[in-house]
Amino acid sequence: MKEAAIKQKYEEAADLRDKIQAIENITQKQKVSNAVENNIDVIGTARNEIGVCVEIFFVRGSKMIGREHYFLNELRDMETKEILSGFIKQYYIENQNMPNKIMIEEEIEDEEILEGVLTQIVGRKVEIKSPKKGEKLRFVEMAKNNAKVTLENKQEDKFEILSELKDKLGLEKFPNKIETFDISNISGTNIVAGMSVLKDRKNKQITIKKI
Questions:
Q1: Strand 189-199's sheet: what is its strand order?
Q2: What whole-number distance in Å separates Cα of residue 206 and Cα of residue 199?
Q3: Which of 37, 139, 184, 201 has a CB 3.0–4.6 Å from the CB of 42, allowing a cystine?
């Protein structure tokens, strides 16, 4: 897949990536189907120079019924336990589809407090656990690995976009810095201009000014 991308065979690389993900999904569902837990969410995280990805596996009735991922690039410099704590608060406080157990990769400082809040919300016991061994630990490792793959795919997608931009503009190499502008107004008044700066494939600055 990477070799195809390097050779700029982007359609072939994307097709290979999709096939790899499909195989991984089948394998993951088979593994999760052997679980003894009936109602759990498994959360894994990954980070690189782009940002942070949080992946959730939904296990119901001993089978993985789905998954979701979220990009939290603004939290790139935070510790993993802080990211997990913040995510659980934001995701579950208003989520009525609450599992009996939430499995995470690291213990968090406010674990007991969060358990109490979530338990009170749904009217039944909700546990937050950081497994150290066995099948549960493998679930968390799977979620972490999926988060890593998702983040790598996002990075490759950016590479493809920059490659296309390079070709369209007839550039000799990838652009290191891109500045975009947007100007809005209300019937010619209250004019506001915004500028976003992308440098070395990272969002560096967003500026909004009233003109």
A1: 177-186, 189-199, 202-210
A2: 12
A3: 139
Nearest to 8 by CA among 153, 151, 149, 162: 162
DSSP of 38-97, one letter per residue?
SEEEEEEEEE-SS-EEEEEEEEETTEEEEEEEEE-GGGTTS-HHHHHHHHHHHHHTT-S-
Amino acid letter, residue 211: I
- Between 12 and 145, residue with greater pLDDT: 145
Fold type of domain 2-164: Nucleotidyltransferase; domain 5 (3.30.420)
Whether the predicted pLDDT of 119 surpasses 90 = yes
Contacts for 199 with CB less than 8 Å, ≥ 6 apart = 176, 177, 178
Identity of the residue numbered 128: I
What does the pLDDT read at residue 73?
Answer: 78
Give the pLDDT band (50/70/90) at residue 163.
low
The number of residues in the chain equals 211
Nearest-angstrom CA–CA distance, 164 and 207: 26
Query: At which residue do the structure tokens 């793959």 appear?
Result: 149
Q: Identify the pLDDT of residue 152.
A: 80
